[in-house]
From TrEMBL:
PANTHER family from the UniProt entry: 3-PHENYLPROPIONATE_CINNAMIC ACID DIOXYGENASE FERREDOXIN SUBUNIT, FERREDOXIN-RELATED
Keywords: 2Fe-2S, Dioxygenase, Iron, Iron-sulfur, Metal-binding, Oxidoreductase
Keyword Metal-binding attached: yes
Organism: Streptomyces angustmyceticus
Gene3D superfamilies from the UniProt entry: Rieske [2Fe-2S] iron-sulphur domain
Keyword DNA repair: no
GO molecular function, one term: dioxygenase activity
PROSITE patterns linked to this entry: RIESKE (PS51296)
Protein name: Bifunctional 3-phenylpropionate/cinnamic acid dioxygenase ferredoxin subunit
Limits of the Rieske domain: 2-99
Domain of life: Bacteria
InterPro entries: Rieske_2Fe-2S, Rieske_2Fe-2S_sf
Length: 109
């Protein structure tokens, strides 16, 4: 688990972007609907940071073309996005938000 920030440092409706290393994709952690959610930070439609998007309910709107993604599942809720973004496990321990990055699936040749 990777520590992200203290719960008081991530207000409802906001996000924080975390870079882990040069291999793991950048992750956006969101506080929405009283919970914490983590997604790959890059929109699956085009290269835009979801952490720069707008949170409404349990959805984030991509700042580039307004695609919506469900924070709980990573699934797109409207076009132009067609592919989901990967989700990551989030937990809160002693007032600190932690993320466990999902294992990256390698393409099979």
């Amino acid at each position: 688990m990777i520590p992200v920030c203290r719960v008081e440092d991530l207000p409802e409706g906001e996000s924080v972007r975390i870079e882990i290393d040069g291999v793991t994709p950048v992750i956006a952690v969101f506080h929405a609907e009283g919970g914490y959610y983590a997604l790959d930070d890059t929109c699956s439609h085009q290269d835009a940071a979801l952490s720069d998007g707008w949170v409404e309910g349990c959805f984030v709107e991509c700042p580039l073309h307004a695609a919506l993604f469900d924070l709980r599942t990573g699934a797109p809720a409207c076009l132009p996005a067609r592919r989901p973004v990967r989700t990551h496990e989030v937990s809160v321990l002693d007032g600190m938000i932690h993320v466990r990055p999902a294992v990256r699936e390698e393409a099979v040749a």
